UniProtKB/TrEMBL annotation:
GO terms for molecular function: monooxygenase activity. The keyword NADP applies. Belongs to the lysine N(6)-hydroxylase/L-ornithine N(5)-oxygenase family. Keywords: FAD, Flavoprotein, Monooxygenase, NADP, Oxidoreductase. Pathway: Siderophore biosynthesis. GO terms for biological process: intracellular iron ion homeostasis. It comes from Coccidioides immitis H538.4. Its cofactor is FAD. This is L-ornithine N(5)-monooxygenase. Gene3D superfamilies: FAD/NAD(P)-binding domain (3.50.50.60).
């Protein structure tokens, strides 16, 4: 009467998947693991509020840095991967990179 039909089929296995693991950067950073801090909740890498990858103390120069974008959902929340705030996040990253550069210039003057 409603136009709907019902079919019964047998299957050995049914998989319902709704997510994926976003970690394309892990293979690129693999060789740096010995000098990188791990995250407080067991994350593979520690990323600060300004998206900068945390190195172990004394392992790299103070002005050295790697910034991650779009792959920090575990530390920065769901909005990290949203395109709608990309311009704001890009501005924050640029500010962080430039302030790191200015700090190195200040250290050079000392």
């Amino acid at each position: 009467m409603t136009g709907q039909s019902e079919t019964l089929d047998k299957y050995d296995l049914v998989i319902l998947a709704t997510g994926y693991k976003r970690n394309p950067f892990t293979t690129v950073l693999k060789q740096l693991e010995p000098i990188l801090e791990t995250g407080p909740a067991g994350e593979q890498f520690c990323v600060d509020r300004k998206y900068r990858l945390a190195f172990l103390p004394g392992k790299v120069r103070r002005d050295a840095g790697i910034w991650l974008q779009g792959c920090c959902e575990s530390t920065h929340g769901l909005s990290d991967s949203l395109l709608s705030i990309l311009s704001v996040r890009s501005s924050e990253l640029l500010d962080a990179i430039l302030s790191s550069s200015k700090r190195s210039e200040q250290f050079a003057k000392l």
